[in-house]
Amino acid sequence: MNKNQGKKESLLRNSGFQTVIASLLCIIIGLVIGYIVLLIINPKGAGAAIVAIVKNFLYYPSAAAAMKYFGTTLVKASALLMCSLSVLFAYKVGLFNIGAAGQYVVGAGACLYFALQFGMPWYVCLLAAIVVAALAGGVSGALKAYFNVNEVISCIMLNWIGLYSVNMLLSQVKEQSTPYTKTLSSTNSSALLPNVGLDKLFSKNEFVTIGLILSVVMAVIVWVVLEKTKFGYELKATGMNKQAAKYCGMREKRNIILTMMIAGGLAGFGAGIFYLTGIEQWMVQQTAVPAMGFNGIAAAFLGGLNPIGTVFASYFIQHITSGGTYVDKTMYCTQISDLISAFIIYLCGFVLFFRLWLNRFLDKREEKQNAKEQKGGEA
């Protein structure tokens, strides 16, 4: 095998490279399937619809308008990133945090209540969102650690408990004439996250705040904790084999609870950096958990369960979700982008399958190459 072949072989065996290629294939296949669905619904507008979904903010011919809506997509993507990190962190420790949606909800409730009822500044409200959501995650962790209750079941139940509890709590700070909470800008402007000049980069979009930077920094911190620290190693070891971790002297119960608390705190952080921008108000009559937490599952797996890859995956999921608002409403509903996201979620299983298949293919090719070299040497 020559030097160039060796480099190519090394690149193909790189897990990061394999994940990127597999994720790109998932995206392409998902978009193709989505286009076929659009053709089935109404073939006349299918091409324009799929282009609108992919373009998103580029739908606007004005550069200023495009930049402004690009900023809005980034704000939503930063919250999605935190939910995906929540799912990822728990999954790395052998837990499936389907409760990220509920933890996001209680985080939203905490930050808005502290802002609107108590008039607290943004940093107190953000901390409240993290702490309350962490406690919600800790409940599932404790049930798992001490009573072996499956975290999926407890998380699903807590999602609904959290939603209706937050609805009742925030009904105390809602506007009189609407089912929405009061606006932060008119009630307590000190609760709004600072822009630090970022709004000027996005055509004076006041919703672009330091939350954008904090979310990326948090992704880097999660990567460092999981991959470069003793604490992260212990957590992953507990997830791989709880009994072996206990035998090695690790406090496996504490690690499970702590993992779910950190995962919950990340989801709550996402709610804080989203609602404290003032971009949306909470509707106290909603009967469905926000999709942000569930979309985090898609982003985590599409990013190959890597915190850095999740940054890009979160943006892509939010990009096509927001792009769905630009389809022709007379032909298609805006949820068509959610359908495409769903296809991509199912295809995420292909990421692991692709890596397995590629490694087997490379092993067979290497065996054949070694066999040829051995025959050549004998000759």
Throw out a few tags for this protein.
379 residues, globular, mainly alpha
As an assembly, this protein is: single chain
Give the beta-strand count: 0
C-alpha end-to-end distance: 18 Å
Mean pLDDT, as a whole number? 90
Q: Assign a percent range to the helix content.
A: over 70%
> Can you tell me the residue ranges where pLDDT is under 50 for at least 5 consecutive residues?
none
Main sheet characteristics: none
- Structural class estimated from helices and strands: mainly alpha
What's the tally of helices? Answer: 17
Radius of gyration: 23 Å
Could you give a quick summary of the protein structure above?
74% of the residues lie in helices and 0% in strands.
Task: Characterize the structure shown.
It is built from 17 helices and no strands. The two termini are 18 Å apart. The protein is mostly helical.
Secondary structure layout:
Blueprint: H1 3-13, H2 15-41, H3 46-55, H4 63-92, H5 100-116, H6 122-147, H7 151-170, H8 184-187, H9 198-201, H10 211-228, H11 230-240, H12 242-247, H13 252-275, H14 291-302, H15 307-323, H16 336-347, H17 349-378
